[in-house]
Amino acid sequence: MGTSWRKLFDWCLAALAIVLLAGCVATPVIPGPPTATTQPTVEQPMTQPIQPTQPAEPTPVGSQPGLSPVPTPQASGPTGSVAEIVARQDLARRLGIPMTEVKVINVSKAEMPIGSLGCGETDGTANTGLIVGSEITLSARSQEYVYHSDGIKLAPCSPADFPGGSQPIYLSSGGPQPNPDPQESAIADLAGRLSISTDAITVRSVEAVKWPDASLGCAKPGRMYAQVITPGYRIVLQAGGKSYEYHTGAGNVVLCQ
After folding, report:
1. Which of 49, 72, 162, 202 could be cross-linked to 238 through a Cys-Cys bond (beta carbons 3.0 to 4.6 Å apart)?
2. Which has the closest alpha carbon to 90: 147, 27, 11?
3. How far apart are the C-alpha atoms of 228 and 212, rounded to whole Å?
4. What are the φ and ψ backbone dihedral angles of 182, each rounded to 5 degrees?
């Protein structure tokens, strides 16, 4: 009897120990389905509004790399070509008027005979063919005058009774050079200024002078002149009881006042 109780008691103790041991063992955690991880919210920068694209301004041709600039049209100077200048000077001298009263009406290319240039006198040159030259039409005192030029000489053409004749004037070393009389030029200029006949003007003196510069001794304030010795003349004229002094040189005639 005692042995049986002793076995029962040992069995109970063993059972109790098993129960207690089972309670101390951690229950394993069975992983469940993965859950979505919440990502931190990132603040997005504000989108700038899209500006409409403006059409590009056209680039001037002259400012594009590798291209030559477009030249700006320049107004032609008041003097014109050498032939025009000489024609105006010649006509003013023939008519005894200031050069400012002689206007250029037209300058055009024209075909003309070699030698005479289609203007009468040949000056010893035979008309052996045609050449393209310039026809210069001038106006003075309500009358038109025409000159022809081949670049070497200038020939008075019309009217037929051209004042002073139709002898050609040479512009370059291609022929005899003109030797305008400075005295006649001064008389013609004064007659034009005073609107009188050249016969009403008396020459009091003509003196050869070497002017120290291109001003011909008549320098004007504020102007620059070439510092070169310029041979010329001092011409004193008289008209209406008054004296007028002209200085000449390098083809210029200046009234010194």
Report:
1. 202
2. 147
3. 6
4. -60, -30
Least confident of 29-33, 116-120, 178-182: 29-33
| pLDDT for 184 | 84
Which pLDDT band holds residue 50 (cuts at 50, 70, 90)?
low
Which residues pair with residue 238 across a beta bridge?
A: 202, 243
- The residues, any chain, with a CB within 8 Å of residue 224's CB and separated by 6 or more, are none
Sequence-ordered list of residues with C-beta below 8 angstroms from that of 210, at least 6 positions apart, any chain: 229, 230, 231, 232
The predicted model scores a pTM of: 0.41
Per domain, the residue ranges of the chain are: 79-177, 180-257
Q: How far is CA 128 from CA 30, 112, 117, in A?
A: 128, 11, 11
